[in-house]
Amino acid sequence: MFTMKRIVIGLGLLAAFTATAAAQQSESTKKPITKTERRELRRDTKEIRQDRREARADRRELKRDIKQGDSAEVRRDKRELRQDKREVKADKRERRKDTKTAKKP
């Protein structure tokens, strides 16, 4: 009985050590993000901010043109606003892709 108890405890400790070693090994295989990748992510973030600023400016112009009743300018501003939204989406998609590749081991 005493020997069986020692065997069970020993196997339990062995399993715990194995799990700990496996967890440490998987953490150490993660590739650190390089300066170039970090720079690319910052560039993507700046592009998103710039596109959002442009969209805000286009919304202000759209409101002004609606108040003035200039229908041709309203159509142009709406078209620009749609283009800005597409650019924001594309930049976000690019940033997600860059983040995935940077974190990939």
Structure description:
By secondary structure, this protein is an all-alpha fold. It has a domain at 31-103. It contains 3 helices and no strands. The longest helix is centred in the middle third of the chain and has 34 residues, at 35-68. The radius of gyration is 28 Å and the shape is rod-shaped. The two termini are 47 Å apart. The mean pLDDT is 84.
Question: How is the secondary structure organized here?
Answer:
Elements: H1 2-28, H2 35-68, H3 71-103
Helix pairs in contact: 2-3
Q: Segments where pLDDT lies below 50 for 5+ residues? A: none
- Cα distance, first to last residue? 47 Å
Strand content: under 5%
Averaged pLDDT: 84
- Please bin the fraction of helical residues: over 70%
Shape: rod-shaped
* Number of helical elements: 3
Rg, alpha carbons: 28 Å
> H/E series, N to C?
HHH
Question: What summary fits the major beta sheet?
Answer: none
Helix/sheet category = mainly alpha
Report the strand count.
0
What key phrases describe this protein's structure?
rod-shaped; single chain; 105 residues; 3 helices
